[in-house]
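Hey all, sorry for the wall of text incoming. These are the three entities for the joint prediction.
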Amino acid sequence: MSGRKETVLDLAKFVDKGVQVKLTGGRQVTGTLKGYDQLLNLVLDEAVEFLRDQDDPLKTTDQTRRLGLIVCRGTAVMLVSPTDGTDEIANPFIQPDGA
Amino acid sequence: MLPLSLLKTAQGHPMVRTFTFPRMPLHMLVELKNGETYNGHLVNCDTWMNIHLREVICTSKDGDRFWRMPECYIRGNTIKYLRVPDEVIDKVQEETKSRADRKPPGVGRGRGRAREDGPGGRQPKGAGRGLDDSARTTSGGRGRGGSGGKNTGGRGSGRGRG
Amino acid sequence: MSTGPGLESLVDQTISVITNDGRNIVGVLKGFDQATNIILDESHERVYSTKEGVQQLVLGLYIIRGDNISVVGELDEELDSALDLSNLRAHPLKPVIH
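and here's what came out:
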């Protein structure tokens, strides 16, 4: 069920681990991945949402709110990454990343 | 050339030989619709442009905050553009050319029909390639043929690419 | 000249693309698909401003997603090379609002 061939990322390795999820519209949530399906619907336990800037809803702040056990709708999931090893760092580019 | 073939080549050739990093996966830049950029090595991608990156550096929209993450999965439809290393385009051309050279005339159609009939379990490995090529050279069914080959061709076409 | 439907006739030609976020990218069209995702080679972005001339940022090889593209146009290289971009002032485009 869970290991569909066409998924690019095998979420199995993230089960029971902390993941960070960014959703369309700008919400950002972290939690423990408890389950998922091939449509990328996710079940997160002990989920915490990062609250966003009043003026710029695309900017997250360090303020959080506890959500508990949640389901993230797959269609709204933009990005999934493990929280383990994810850290904010100083500018790693020599020049600001104008790309 | 299809954009997804280029992307697939960037993934299918995971190793770019450079002096300092003889076998370093391709480094790409992805900008999302929300303005965030992700710099990382392309591990995998699919027909929806969903991508899996490793050793990622995420930059906020304003370019003032940075995060390092070991890997991340990005949904294709949130992507604005991808910046691909220049050398990849030559690799695609090499591949298409060498595959075209190997293709005997008429192979595409014959194999294509065979594929519809059965589950395709006993096709030779080359089938995916032949089909792919014919899909590439005819103008009308191009995209469709390509992606169909990818989905149904299963193993054969996957190897052809990788 | 351009014949046939779609972008086929523009392949290997220099094109100018305007994206939904208001950028203008110029490059050689190397490929496209049904979703208007496009491959641009040797591309550069032209940044317009009212205060200074047009800045050109080198981008290189790009895949631009179709749903982020507003306009694709053929670029007349002769006319274009006659332009004095460094003395051209223009308002930057605003992004598309959905």
